[in-house]
Amino acid sequence: MKNYHQAPAAVVMIRPHHFCPNPQTAADNAFQISQRGLVDRDIKAKALAQVNAAADTLIRHGVRVMLFDDETRDTPDSVFPNNWFTTHEDGSVGIYPMYCENRRKERRDDILARLGREYRVKQTFDYARFESQGLFLEGTGAMVLDHVNRIAYAVKSKRMSDWLLNRFCRDFNYQAVAFHASDENNVDVYHTNVLMCIGTGFAVLGSELIKDEAERRRVVQNLQLGGREVIALTLEQIKQFAGNALELATAQGNILAISQTAFNSLKPGQISSIEKYVKIVPLDVSTIELAGGSIRCMLAGIHLPRKSESLAG
Questions:
Q1: Model's pTM, two decimal places?
Q2: Which residues form the signal peptide (predicted)?
Q3: Among 85, 105, 147, 226, which residue's Cβ finds the most Cβ atoms within 10 Å?
């Protein structure tokens, strides 16, 4: 049986040249913020600078970053590529259906082609056609994957079809754990990855947003049975994107990419608990966060084996 790794050593990032909060996603993304009086030119420049700085920092820490530019004006959320594709250690790639129409334009053949040139891609599961049936599953926004124990955690929302979640789990050999989560106004959490992050030895979870006790217990117990120390986050910390983080593998040890906003919301005890497992690397993506996503959304993990590696094992 293959031993899977939780943390990727490489990521895809997108440099947006015309970034702005997406008006099509505002209806169900409670994390999206008004532009606070900033003019479009300032937002675009700051967003591009923050992506460049975040990529440079990750590279300095030993993460392989595959950067692509988006110079179009049609895809305001393209900085969040983790929603439209996933990659997996067995050589599989998933392509996903997107809820908002302008987000469907983010799917790019050139990104998939470069992955195919540098990594071993064995098969591709393309679910994008289900958009025409009103079925959506927005990648590792809609799902937070426990790669080691093969569990796909997913909050029920407009952006996650139960039928497609089960189809994904069948195709990729995961078990589905779907649950409800909402804020203090009973607004559904739009993406699972703002609520939780699963690392190799720990998980952070906004457990108080899972109102149903049985569902909350199931999520927590599954994480614990999977060998994770569960670190609880408050609603206020979730609003500061403390759940939207990603563990990455480097030769010097694993790191946790997290936004500066999120890091500032953590308590000393939570930081100490996380630092037992990883080095925390805060990244300033405050302008990107106006769009309702943070650093984890900006990182599409590359789990594929390099062409020099074997798919066996």
A1: 0.92
A2: none
A3: 85
